[in-house]
Specification:
With 125 residues, this protein is of the alpha+beta class. It is 37% helix and 22% strand. It contains three helices and four strands. A hairpin with a 5-residue loop joins strand 1 and strand 2. The termini are far apart. Keywords: Kinase, Serine/threonine-protein kinase, Transferase.
């Protein structure tokens, strides 16, 4: 999808529909949609990408949900240098990812020519 702010909503809506079709628990769906929103927002606002690619994979045993956000920017992802202050509106995306995901990270993307930021959740409670 194009790396535009409007794509964040599209990514959330598309993912929500897929997660419901997979019949994942409501709390898993909510957490996954929030992670997708944060990762897509970061890619749209903080990279030089023209396009981003969001992927969801449910492991064969159905226990883990992997979220991937591919962008065209090869700049490595690094944790924020400082935490957002209480009055700041931005700067908490990766904090949310760290808190919600069982594991997360980033590596070079083989699909978009830049990097992929991924997060994994337990798929069933």
């Amino acid at each position: 999808m194009p790396a535009l702010r409007t794509s964040v909503r599209s990514a959330r809506d598309t993912a929500r529909d897929l997660l419901r079709a997979w019949q994942l628990p409501g709390d898993t769906c909510c957490d996954a949609v929030l992670l997708i929103s944060e990762l897509t927002t970061n890619a749209v606002l903080h990279t030089s990408s023209g396009q981003v690619l969001c992927g969801l994979t449910l492991t064969g045993d159905g226990r883990r949900l992997r979220i991937e956000l591919h962008d065209e920017d090869s700049t490595p992802l690094s944790p924020p240098e400082r935490e957002a202050g209480p009055a700041e509106e931005n700067g908490r995306g990766l904090l949310l990812v760290r808190q919600l995901a069982a594991s997360w990270g980033s590596t070079r993307s083989t699909r978009a020519g830049g990097k992929v930021v991924w997060a994994e959740l337990a798929a069933h409670s």
